[in-house]
Amino acid sequence: MAPTKKHKKPLKKPSLIGFQPCQHAIVSGASGKGKTWYVVDSILGTGVHEGLDSPWDAIIVCCDAISLKQPAFQRLQKEFTGRGGVTMIEGLPSNDEDTEGISEKAFMKMLEDNFNNGLHTLVLIDDLMIATKSGPAQHFVDTLFISARHLNTAVWELTQTHTGSRTRRLQCSFLICFATPSDARSLAHIARSIRPETGGKDILEAYRTATSSREGHGCLVICLGQQPEFMFRNTDMRICFDLKPRPIDTNLVAMQFW
User: Considering the domain boundaries, does residue 209 fall inside one?
Assistant: First the structure.
């Protein structure tokens, strides 16, 4: 059965329908599919997120020089009303003395100050895939994903591939998957890992349904910490795919590891 129906059973805790503070996410998909607008709408409680409260008090955006001026972030700076405001940073923090910009120490001081002031912070790392693949930058971002929640901080990485850093993915509460037309099968490995009993085929079907909706700007939201019946959302966090749990085929599971 194609997973296209809304789940009829309501969430037990309405306050947990939307995104939560201190919970990390990877937002993946090709350029132009709406990743940044979706995230900004989730922060502002607008668009598909209208009616859902924003859980963050302060936003820190790390992106390249061109992205600093993109309309979505300009709107974010104009409309966000959280006590901690919006801080825009070009590139990633670095301890390299030859590199301009904020140091890792100063960046962590920002997070600590927000924590001491009782703020929940969201750090957005927008399309800096090349910079975070290796070296000190990779180590710094990996460390953020592992430890930042202790400072009431969520880290969301926007990237163009579903199969990024495994270290970061394992720390995530949400995988937000937009379309990748040139690499449509890149989600298959993750889908098999999450639903080995079905080979991940039902997740991929839900993904195709979600990403073909809303004029190609829809996404599949995988809520890794939720009960199975509420785990897969169709763009709007209030719409769940009905992927019923199935008995595990031990032969199929064994085949995944050969």
Answer: yes
What pLDDT is attached to residue 98? 58
* Residue 45 pLDDT level (bands cut at 50, 70, 90): very high
Question: Is there a domain that residue 208 lies in?
Answer: yes
Neighbours of 109 (CB within 10 A): 12
Q: What percent of the chain has pLDDT over 70?
A: 83
First CA to last CA distance, the chain: 29
* pTM of this structure: 0.84
Name the DSSP letter for residue 256: H
Q: Round to whole Å and give the CA distance between 162 and 189.
A: 10
Segments in the chain forming alpha helices (H): 35-44, 71-79, 104-116, 135-147, 166-170, 188-194, 201-211, 250-256
User: Which CATH number fits the domain that encloses residue 68?
Assistant: 3.40.50.300
The pLDDT tens digits of the residues spanning 110-145 come to 999 999 999 999 999 998 755 555 567 888 889 999
φ/ψ bin of 22: left (φ > 0), alpha (ψ from -120 to 50), beta (otherwise): left
Q: State how many domains the chain has.
A: 1
Q: Is residue 240 part of a domain?
A: yes
Looking at the DSSP bridge assignments, the partners of residue 61 are 88, 124
Task: Report the C-alpha gap between 95 and 223 in whole angstroms.
Answer: 34
Q: List, for residues 188-201, the tens digit of each pLDDT value.
A: 888 998 888 889 99
Averaged pLDDT score across all residues of the chain: 83
- Confirm whether 9 is domain-assigned: no
More confident residue, 258 or 231: 231
Range of the domain at 110: 18-256
Residues 6+ apart with CB under 8 A from 203: 187, 191, 194, 195, 220, 222, 232, 243
